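Researcher: Please generate the 3D structure of the following complex. Treat every line as part of one assembly.
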Amino acid sequence: MSEFRQNMATKEWVIIAPERGKRPSDLAKEIGKRQPMPSFSENCPFCPGNEKDTPPAVLQMSHAGSWKLRVVPNRFAALSPNKSAIRHPVGAFLSADGFGIAEVIIENSLHNKTIATMSIDEVTDILHAYRERQSEVSKNENINLVTIFRNHGPRAGTSLEHPHSQLIATPIVPPHVRYPLEQAVLYYDKHGSCVYCDLYKEELNQKERVIIESPRFVVFCPFASRSPFETRIYPKKHQASFLSASDDDIAELAVVLHQILLKIYTFLGDPDYNYIIRSSPIGDEDTRHLHWYMIIIPKISTAAGFEIGSGIYINTVAPEEAAKHLREVAIG
Amino acid sequence: MSEFRQNMATKEWVIIAPERGKRPSDLAKEIGKRQPMPSFSENCPFCPGNEKDTPPAVLQMSHAGSWKLRVVPNRFAALSPNKSAIRHPVGAFLSADGFGIAEVIIENSLHNKTIATMSIDEVTDILHAYRERQSEVSKNENINLVTIFRNHGPRAGTSLEHPHSQLIATPIVPPHVRYPLEQAVLYYDKHGSCVYCDLYKEELNQKERVIIESPRFVVFCPFASRSPFETRIYPKKHQASFLSASDDDIAELAVVLHQILLKIYTFLGDPDYNYIIRSSPIGDEDTRHLHWYMIIIPKISTAAGFEIGSGIYINTVAPEEAAKHLREVAIG
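Model: Done. Output below.
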C-alpha cells in the first residue's frame, strides 16, 4: 500500500512505498560493515601532530595541555573570503566571484571517534563550536547564509575518516532556501503561527513517528520523510536561528543528538549519513515564521531519475516503521 | 578560481570550483570499468523468453517475428492506477493514495546494449515509444505530470542491467516542478519570450559550452551545471511539451542523443548516468513560457550536506572544460 504525503512546511510531496517482504532490519546487512579504524593515522591532516597540514585554527578547545577540538579554514575550500561578493553579468547570465567562508570543525583528536561513540561532553563542545563560528562569520556583512553540516562516510560525500563537520557561509540565499521561507510566511499569515512549531506539535500529537521527547526537543521521523530513517530534531521553543540556542539548549541538544545518532549507529550498523543544521538567513534571526532544526539523512537509498526530474522522493521505509525501530533500540 | 553562477531559468545557484591539478580525463579512471555483460541473461526478467516475468506489454514493436522493444507496467511500481487520486487529511497533514502509472520501456532485446551502442533506428524506436506512452497516459484525467527517465547503472539508482527507461505519471505537480514554471512566467511577462528559448540562444551565442548543434537541436553543458559533465538537449523550436515533437524532430533527436551519449561513453568510460525528459504538466502543452528538454547527469559526484542543506551544488569541472572535451571526442 503506497501513499503520497505532503511536507506541511515546504509543500513538497513524497511517495511512501514500503517494499514487500523486506524488513528495515535487513538494511544494516545491505549497508555493509565499516572497516575498523585506528585512533591515530599518521597521514591524516586532522590527527594531532599534523597541525601544520591545516591552516592555523580559528577556534581551539584544549584539555590538559592538548587540543580536543579545532576549527580551521578549509584548505581545499570552494570559496574564499578574499573575494568580492558583487554579482556581474556574463552575457545574459549572472555570475559572482567565489566569495565565502569555509571552515572545518575537527571534532575530536581521536581519528576513530564519531558522534555516536563520543561522550556527551565531547558532543557539547562540538555544538558550542558550531554556535560560536556561526556567530562569528555572521558578522561579515556580505555573508547571508551559514550552513553547518556533517558528512559521515563516502556515500555521504566525504573521503576523510577523521571526525569532522563543516561550515560554509555564502553571500547568496538561493531559491532552494527561499521557497520554504515563502511558504512559511504564507502559513504564518493564514494561521498566525510558525508552521514548524505546528508541524512538531502535530508529530507529538500523532505520536507514532516520535523517537525521543525531552523538555526542550523532539526527535522524529517526519510524516513526509524523503528517505528511509530520515530523522529531525526540532527545538520546542520557537527560535528561527541556531544562534538563539542557549547554553542550556545546547547541553540538552547534545544529549538527544548523541542518543539518536547512537540509535541509528546501533540499528543500521554505523551507516554513512549527512546531517545539517537549517537556520534562518542572517538578519532573520528573530522572525516569527522560521524555525531552526537539524535533519539527519542516513545514506541508504539513491536519488534516481524520477526524484531528480519530479522532486518527488520514493521512500521504501514508512517513517512510522523507522521510528518504531529506533524507539526500541536500547542504548547505554 | 571559483565562481558562483545562476541558472537563468530556475534562479538556482551553483559553485564552479575546478579541483587544482586534476584533469577531467582522470575521471574515467576514478569511475572504474563496467563488467562486460552477456547479450542474454537467463534470470533477467527483460530478456526474450522471460516475458512471463513481466505484466503483458502495453506497447510492443516487432521485427521479423520477434519483439525489439516492449513497454510493460512496472511490476514493482510504487504507484498503481487502481487507486483514488483524492487527497485527504491525516490530522494537520495531507495525504493521497498511491495513484499513478508506472511503466518500464524495455529498450532492446539484447541484455548488453545501451543507447551509446545502439543503432540510430533503435534509439528512434525508444523515443517513439516515449512519445506514444506519454500521449496515452496523459489522457487519464487524474494524471497531471509525466516523467520519463533512464537510470543507467547502480550509482544512478538501478540494479537492473537490461537496457530500460521508465515512465512515472503522477496526479501531483509538486513545488519542485512548479517553482521553475513560476520563474518562467515572471520572465515571460518581463521579456515577452520563453526563458528556455533565450537560454539556449545565449549558449549558442557564447558558444564555448556547446557540444553539438543540429538544425533542430542544441546540445550543451549549461553555464550553471550542477555536476561534472551535466549535459542538456534543447529543441530550438519553442515547444512546451515533448508531445509536440514531430516525427522529424524525433528522428533528429535520436541522432544527437546517440551522439552525445556515445561521446560521454567514450570519454568517461561508460559512466552511470540519469537522463530525464522535462516536459510541461498535462494541459500546459501549448503554453508560451515553458520548453521541454532533456538533461543528462553522469553520476560522478555525490551531493553532500552542503548541497542538501543549501541547494547550492559545488561542481568541480567547469562546463566549458567538459564541453571542450566532449566536442573533441571523435565518434564513428
